[in-house]
Amino acid sequence: MGTSITFKRPDGKDASGYLANAARGNAPGVVVIQEWWGLQDQIKGLCDRFAVAGFDALAPDLYKGTVVPYHDTDAAGREMNSLDFMDATTQTVRGAAQYLSRNGAKVGLTGFCLGGAVTIIGATKIPELAAGVVFYGIPPEQAAKPADVKIPLQAHFANKDDWCTPEVVNAFEQGMKAAGKSLELFRYDAEHAFVNEQRQSVHDRQAAELAWGRATAFFAKHLG
Questions:
Q1: Which residues form the Dienelactone hydrolase domain (predicted)?
Q2: What backbone torsions phi and psi does residue 103 show, to the nearest 5 degrees?
Q3: Do the strands 14-20 and 3-8 form a parallel or antiparallel pair, or are they unpaired?
């Protein structure tokens, strides 16, 4: 349904990604950020679903062509740990947001796992954004403080998550409340990466569909 494109970062360098356009011409935009596996077909599929839901969706390729097989957590960890999160967010992700906003459209940001952390960083660093939806990822506070979040956020977390643990989620929620920031936070009795239907060991269809409905409604409300 979508297509691979090249777009410009603010620093003038080229970046690539997967773009799926909504049927209507003046659709709002959503930037979709990958898990630590890279720009997997599952993320492209989510872009296609956003397009059907009425949004132009662009998933920038933060790993520049590298896609890690789902079973290889060591390789995924190496790729994630070698990623310059600030450059990825303020240049590649912002470039994607600028691409989607070029006709005056409002733009949101969403991401999963690694992409959830990038979404929160983006909420503090990317002026083109109007809203963000976070899926089971939180960056270290030195990367993005709740007090610096500039847009309304919705967030989805798993109670059985041993990476983005309930304790980490509670601290983030308290930080957002203390800073007086807009946050809708949902918890699911599921495991990390429960939205990813390509990973049957963790996928929870009921939780995934509930979260998807909430996310698209949130973007429709804030992006128009």
A1: 17-222
A2: -100, 20
A3: antiparallel
Answer whether residue 1 shows pLDDT above 90: no
CB atoms within 10 A of CB 221: 11
How far apart, in whole angstroms, are the C-alpha atoms of residue 16 and residue 14?
7
Task: Tell me if the pTM is above 0.85.
Answer: yes
Task: Give the count of domains, the chain.
Answer: 1
CATH number, domain with residue 153: 3.40.50.1820
Q: Where are the alpha helices (DSSP H) in the chain?
A: 41-52, 73-82, 85-87, 94-100, 114-125, 166-178, 205-223
Give the residue numbers spanning the domain of 194.
Answer: 3-223
DSSP codes joined into one string, 23-57: SSTT--EEEEE-BTTBS-HHHHHHHHHHHHTT-EE
